[in-house]
Specification:
Strand order of the largest sheet: 4-3-6-5
Low-confidence stretches: 1-17
Strand content: 5-15%
Distance between the termini: 30 Å
Shape: globular
Radius of gyration: 17 Å
Structural class: alpha/beta
Number of helices: 11
Helix content: 40-55%
Number of strands: 6
Order of helices and strands: HHHEHEHHHEEHHEHEH
Largest sheet: 4 strands, mixed
């Protein structure tokens, strides 16, 4: 879920990825896990997920009884936003993550958790990467936001402090963001969309929520092993994309001064 954990070994993202989804290797338990997770999350998300996410879920045509085939998903994404999935093994370096995003490629694993670990994983699996992330890759402003982050990531990939700021932005938006749609709070962050517990918690009375505050997010730490302590609300995906120029100015000003 954290950007620094989503990259391949360095390779040219202009070439075909060196890894592929081996669909024939999925076992019975894999299909059962996908179905269990899909059904329980889809039922929960009908009321709580962003309309854009739900529309994307239908457009991509995910189904409970079928593990998605990346080739079919990519055909849909290419026709809508010119993005595609590429297979990654798991933990991978920062620069290639941003190179992939810059080239409109979203990294995703192909392995699925076991039944014994339905509710918590230290490292995101395919359900998180595909079920939770892919539907929003159908939205033009959302993918433009990802492109904007990737440009900053490539600019500052040698600067650990800058990358930490970009990680925080990614975390509180792409992974754990909320959106206000027609006066109601909805979920768009993939870390929430793929988690039964976080889905219920983030919209509950016990959760702390703020309007989107770029300056605050840039300096806010987070934990990965608990429900999030705070969530930030955007007004639209265009609003999210429109934040990129302000983030760019702040990054340039801060790190130019630091140098």
């Amino acid at each position: 879920m954290r950007p620094s954990l989503r990259l391949l070994d360095p390779l040219s993202t202009r070439n075909e990825p060196i890894m592929q989804q081996d669909y024939e290797r999925y076992e019975v338990e894999d299909f059962e896990v996908w179905q269990l997770l899909y059904i329980r999350q889809e039922q929960q998300l009908r009321k709580s997920a962003s309309v854009t996410y739900l529309e994307g879920l239908k457009t991509i045509d995910f189904r409970a009884n079928e593990i998605p085939r990346f080739k079919k998903v990519n055909e849909k994404l290419q026709s809508l936003t010119q993005w595609e999935l590429v297979v990654v093994p798991g933990l991978i370096p920062d620069r290639t993550f941003f190179e992939l995003l810059f080239n409109q490629k979203f990294p995703a694993t192909t392995w699925l958790r076991k039944k014994s670990s339905l509710d918590y994983l230290e490292e995101p699996d395919m359900f998180h990467d595909v079920f939770a992330h892919v539907p929003l890759l159908t939205d033009v402003f959302f993918v433009k936001f990802l492109l904007g982050l990737s440009q900053l990531g490539l600019t500052y990939f040698n600067n650990a402090a800058a990358l930490e700021i970009l990680t925080r932005i990614y975390w509180f938006t792409v992974e754990f963001g909320l959106i206000r749609e027609q006066g109601q709070l909805k979920i768009y962050g993939a870390g929430i969309l793929s988690s039964l517990g976080e889905t219920a918690h983030c919209l509950s009375k016990g959760a702390t929520r703020f309007e989107f505050d770029l300056e605050r997010i840039m300096h806010l730490d987070f934990r990965k092993d608990v429900f999030q302590e705070v969530y930030f609300i955007i007004s639209s995906y265009e609003h999210l994309y429109d934040m990129i120029p302000a983030l760019t100015r702040k990054m340039n000003l801060f790190f130019d001064k630091a140098n």
